[in-house]
Structure formats: C-alpha cells, structure tokens
C-alpha cells in the first residue's frame, strides 16, 4: 500500500505539474504574443500587415523590431502591457496625425496592433546605423571626428530641429544623447524616440520626465513640467557637450561626490547647479587630470560663443526666460563655423577671434605661435575666413534667414597652376558686382570667380563684402 500510495502520489504530482506547466506555457505564450514579438509574427493597422523580421533593441517601455511590408522596411516600437495605456495610444495618435516637423525626426507613421489587443506599437522610418551613430558613442570616445565642420553642422541641425518642433506647438521632454544620432561625415542628424513629444502646455509637475544631467533645474526640483523652455536648457547642454566633450555642470562639485545617489544628483543639477566656467563662482572648475576634457577646447573657442554658453548656464540656468533660443544658436554656430582657420605650422584647425589678435596665441597641437591669418572677408559686423577649402552658406552671407544654412553661397578655389592665386566662386543665383580699376562695374554670375585682392569690395545683393588677403601679425609676445 505504501508503494501504491507513493505511486499515486507521484502520479498526482506529475499530473498537477503537467497542468501547471501547461498553464505556465499558456501564460508565457500570452505574454510572448503581447509583450514580445518574434520573427514571423504579424502586426497591422488595417491598411498594412507587417511581418516581424528581427529585434533591434529594447528598453523600459518595450522593444524595437525591424518589420517589413511588401519589401518596404520600418522600425516598430512595441509597447509592453505596462506602457500600453490609453494615454500613450492617444499621444501616438496625435503625433501620427500632426506629422513630422521635418526629416530630422524619426517620427511615428502609424499605430499597429497584434493578435492581442492588450498591446500596441507604432512604425517609423529605419535609421541607417551604418551611417548614423548614437551621440553617446561620440561622448564616450568610441567615435572621433578629425574636423570641426561636421560637429558644428550637427549642432546647427539639432538647434534647427528643435526650433521646428517648438514652432509646431510641441515640446520634446527628454532631449539627451540617447535620443540623438549623427552622421559624423557631414553633420546630418536624426532625432528619435519621438513618443516623448507632447503638446507644449503641460501644467502638472508630478511626473519627473527626462534624463539627469539634461533636465532643466526646475524640472529636477519638481517645480515645473517639461516645456519648450526646459527643452532649451537641454539643448544647450547637448551643444556644450558636442563642442567640449564634457558636461557644463560636471566639474569639481561632481568629482567631490562620494556616493552618487538621487539626492546628490538633485543637488548637483537642481538645487545648486554651477557652470564649470562661471565667471564669478569658481568652485566647480574642471578638475585637472580627472574631469578636464573641456579644457582642451574652451580656451580656443572665440569669445562670442563662450559668452553665449556663459549666458546659457548662468542667467539661463536660473531664469527660463533668459535661455538661448534656437535661432540664436543657429546664427552663432554658423558664425563659429565661418571662423575656422588653420595653424600654418601643423595644419590643426583653429578659430579666428578678433579679441585675441593683440597677444600671442598658441596652437593647442604643436604649440607654435599663431601669427598668420588666412584671407578673410568682412560682411557687416562679421569676419569670415577664406581658407583654401572654405565653403560659405546663405545664412553666413545674408542676414535675411539664419535658418538658410544648407545652400552653398560661395567657395574658395586655388588656381591649379598658380597656387599663390586664390579666388571665390559664385555658387548662388545672385549676381555679384565689384568695381574694376577703371571704375567700371563687373558682374559675376553663377559659377563665375572673383580673385581675392586686398581691399576689393563685392556687392552680394543686400550685403557688401570687403576682402583682405593673408596677414602676418605683428604680435607682442
């Protein structure tokens, strides 16, 4: 009997376990069909039926998959049950209806559902990861750029992208390096995770939304909800990090933190934030040899761009109304790009700064004195460099539209047989005019060239450019 009892007990246990395993398998299958998709699954929105090809990545809200419909591929963000809320559904529905502010945004195209109605997702364009790199890889040093042009161009396009977003009445809420992709060959950008986007009229500050280090101080403190004004702060952080490879608030104060917990972060970014180059408060300067990446860049940027960052992280740190708007960043960054020049000793890229011409400046790479300036041109109150490889764009010549930075206006060319002879080629549709020695007026149409001669004045539509040839400076050392 004992053996039979044991056998019955074993049989009952085995039967019970089988039932539990079956139930567990069913639950797992339900979870898989709702929270997780695998290759071969289908999702649809009524008009399209898309087949899942593979998983691309995951996060707290769900996973991202590569899907296809008749050979056309999309990325699918598939929310887990916890994130598949009615509020989230309506938020994505609104974004789909409004459409992308520009092609810089990897925007939701359509909402899709699977077999289970407990979950949903949305499809969006696929980011070409062979071309675009997540900005976090640049900050970590995995990606390096040998030239400043693509970095500055990416900064310009980011500022313009968020200008376009805010112009449509929306705010992003979570600008950070995890949501930005850059083509480091030409500076083009892609802004992803756009389910963060909402109307710029939030009133509740109950939910802290954002990434520490990028959130505006008032959001960190829980006083204000995200808005276009808090986006401006986050944008300034991204731009500073792009140009300096260091966070604008991470210096001595962060280095001294023994335990980096929530309270420490709230103090550093919310209650007592101090710019590492605050002109008055020096308590948070970069730490030599430990937290000093910015020191390799900050001293060499022109004063005008440093003044903008000081404004962004002093008065703009505490007063949202004093933050630098996107159009100003675009204008200043375009001027920064036009300030690029070279060290004639080693070829390192430098920046022209008229405020430093009276004393010796040194190349950060070779250490030689920078005492030779390239040809240049004064347009209004701006001075632009005319290096052998300079290309200037509409916004750098005209004051009419600072956002018109994509169309090339002119480029410098060196005579192939006489390298001492330089000229500027007209790439625009404008007719240029300048005065010859006999006081007659010469017109230069598209693709025409004007030689770079000292003192020559060129009429570019509504602007006058005054040329100056290369100069050897008499610097007091």
TrEMBL record:
Keywords: ATP-binding, Kinase, Nucleotide-binding, Serine/threonine-protein kinase, Transferase. PROSITE patterns: PROTEIN_KINASE_DOM. It comes from the Bacteria. Residues 50-336 form the Protein kinase domain. Residues 1-11 have a biased composition (Polar residues). It holds the Pfam family Pkinase. SMART domains: S_TKc. PANTHER family: CELL CYCLE SERINE_THREONINE-PROTEIN KINASE CDC5_MSD2, SERINE/THREONINE-PROTEIN KINASE PLK. This is Protein kinase domain-containing protein. It comes from Fusibacter bizertensis.
């Amino acid at each position: 009997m004992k053996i039979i009892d044991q056998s019955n007990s074993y049989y009952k246990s085995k039967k019970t376990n089988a039932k539990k395993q079956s139930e567990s398998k069913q639950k797992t299958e339900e979870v898989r069909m709702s929270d997780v998709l695998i290759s071969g699954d289908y999702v649809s929105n009524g008009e399209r039926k898309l087949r899942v090809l593979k998983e691309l990545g995951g996060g707290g809200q769900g996973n991202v998959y590569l899907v296809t419909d008749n050979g056309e591929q999309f990325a699918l963000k598939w929310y887990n049950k916890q994130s598949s809320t009615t509020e989230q559904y309506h938020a994505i529905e609104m974004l789909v209806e409004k459409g992308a502010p520009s092609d810089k945004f990897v925007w939701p195209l359509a909402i899709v559902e699977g077999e289970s109605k407990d979950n949903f997702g949305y499809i969006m364009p696929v980011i070409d990861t062979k071309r675009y790199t997540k900005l976090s890889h640049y900050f970590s040093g995995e990606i390096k750029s040998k030239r400043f042009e693509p970095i500055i161009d990416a900064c310009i396009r980011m500022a313009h992208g968020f200008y376009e977003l805010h112009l449509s009445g929306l705010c992003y809420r979570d600008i950070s390096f995890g949501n930005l992709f850059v083509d480091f060959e030409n500076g083009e950008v892609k802004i992803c995770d756009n389910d963060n986007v909402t109307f710029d009229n939030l009133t509740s500050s109950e939910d802290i939304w954002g990434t520490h280090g990028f959130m505006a101080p008032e959001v960190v403190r829980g006083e204000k909800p995200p808005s276009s004004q808090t986006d401006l702060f986050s944008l300034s952080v991204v731009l500073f990090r792009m140009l300096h490879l260091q966070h604008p608030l991470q210096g001595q104060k962060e280095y001294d933190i023994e335990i980096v917990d929530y309270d420490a972060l709230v103090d550093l970014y919310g209650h007592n934030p101090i710019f590492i180059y605050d002109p008055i408060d020096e308590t948070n300067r970069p730490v030599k040899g430990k937290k000093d990446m910015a020191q390799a860049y900050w001293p060499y940027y022109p004063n005008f761009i440093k003044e903008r960052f000081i404004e962004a992280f002093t008065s703009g740190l505490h007063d949202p109304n004093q933050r630098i708007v996107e159009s100003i960043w675009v204008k200043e960054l375009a001027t920064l790009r036009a300030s690029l020049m070279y060290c004639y000793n080693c070829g390192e890229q430098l920046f022209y700064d008229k405020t430093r011409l009276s004393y010796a400046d040194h190349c950060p790479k070779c250490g030689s004195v920078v005492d030779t300036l390239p040809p240049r041109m004064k347009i209004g109150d701006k001075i632009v460099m005319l290096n052998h490889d300079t290309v200037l764009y509409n916004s750098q010549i005209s004051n009419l539209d600072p956002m018109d930075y994509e169309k090339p206006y002119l480029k410098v060319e060196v005579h192939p047989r006489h390298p001492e002879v330089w000229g500027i080629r007209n790439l625009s549709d404008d007719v240029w005019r300048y005065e010859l020695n006999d006081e007659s007026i010469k017109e230069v149409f598209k693709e025409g060239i004007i030689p770079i001669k000292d003192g020559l004045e060129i009429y570019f539509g509504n602007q006058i450019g005054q040329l100056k040839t290369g100069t050897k400076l008499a610097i007091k050392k």
